[in-house]
User: Which sequence fits this backbone?
């Protein structure tokens, strides 16, 4: 197994064609095909179904693809970290993001940051909350963008933007949710589908604790935000998601607190104090915070 074979797999998935993937990878089609065949033999299963008209990924391929991408990402991260170590003047900003971050908003903030010209290059890494903390501690990240939680332990942090939380009722419920919202207290005995690692479960737990309402987690656990909505649609349990993670087809209503204000998830940037780029990191945080706040205020 080698990195070239993994690049071939991700390219075929992206292009939907062996010939187009070969062009993207700057190799001949036989070289790419042979590389994938060798990888399939080593892994013990077919990654793609190939006919004269189409190329589709197999179920096994769908399982392997994110693992292959993670290896390629780790290789890029290793190179960028080495570059940052030996060339501190190059100013490479390494940002870790919780999966809960709104990618649409963040792309605008990243563009604003690039326009300021504060960094030679920016490297992004999506991580779960615990991994973000470990990477900040071991100096393999400069910034962590994540939901604020009661258990946050960072010496330096700054608010970025807020996003309203919505409740997706199980579709076995009679009637539809009210347009004015549902109070947290009304969810006291409703099982709630939780996710793992991104920080959303902690946000929900903190919200219920502040409202002095017991949280009843559903016994199972969803891996993606789409699954939360799908399970709610099946009537399994209720779901709670920020606005940006709601599928368009979901029937959802805003969550309000006991004083009638909308419930939000609050996002922050966290970093470790000290280091040669401390001032530039803080300036970058303020650039992103201003941009994210303005963009989120313009969302419907």
Assistant:
């Amino acid at each position: 197994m080698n990195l070239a074979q993994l690049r071939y797999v991700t390219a075929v998935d992206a292009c939907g064609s062996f010939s187009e993937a070969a062009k993207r990878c700057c190799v001949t089609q036989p070289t790419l095909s042979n590389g994938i065949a060798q990888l399939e033999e080593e892994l013990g299963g077919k990654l793609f179904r190939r006919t004269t008209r189409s190329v589709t990924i197999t179920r096994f391929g769908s399982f392997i693809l994110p693992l292959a991408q993670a290896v390629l990402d780790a290789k890029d991260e290793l190179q960028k970290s080495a570059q940052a170590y030996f060339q501190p003047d190059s100013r490479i900003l390494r940002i870790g993001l919780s999966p809960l971050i709104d990618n649409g908003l963040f792309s605008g903030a990243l563009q604003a940051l690039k326009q300021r010209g504060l960094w030679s290059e920016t490297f992004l890494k999506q991580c779960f909350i615990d991994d973000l903390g470990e990477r900040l501690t071991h100096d393999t990240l400069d910034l962590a963008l994540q939901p604020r939680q009661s258990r946050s332990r960072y010496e330096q942090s700054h608010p970025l933007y807020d996003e309203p939380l919505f409740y997706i009722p199980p579709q076995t419920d009679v009637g539809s949710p009210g347009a004015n919202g549902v109070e947290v207290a009304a969810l006291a005995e409703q099982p709630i589908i939780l996710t793992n690692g991104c920080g959303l479960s902690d946000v929900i737990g903190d919200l219920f604790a502040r409202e002095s309402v017991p949280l009843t987690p559903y016994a199972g656990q969803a891996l993606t935000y789409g699954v939360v909505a799908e399970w709610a649609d099946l009537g399994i349990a209720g779901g709670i998601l920020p606005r940006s993670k709601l599928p368009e087809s979901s029937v959802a209503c805003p969550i309000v607190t006991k004083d009638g204000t909308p419930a939000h998830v609050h996002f922050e940037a966290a970093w470790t104090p000290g280091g040669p780029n401390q001032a530039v990191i803080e300036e970058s945080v303020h650039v992103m915070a201003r941009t994210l706040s303005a963009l989120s205020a313009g969302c419907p």
Remarks:
- The mean pLDDT is 88.
- Residues 59-86 form the longest helix (28 residues).
- The two ends are 48 Å apart (CA to CA).
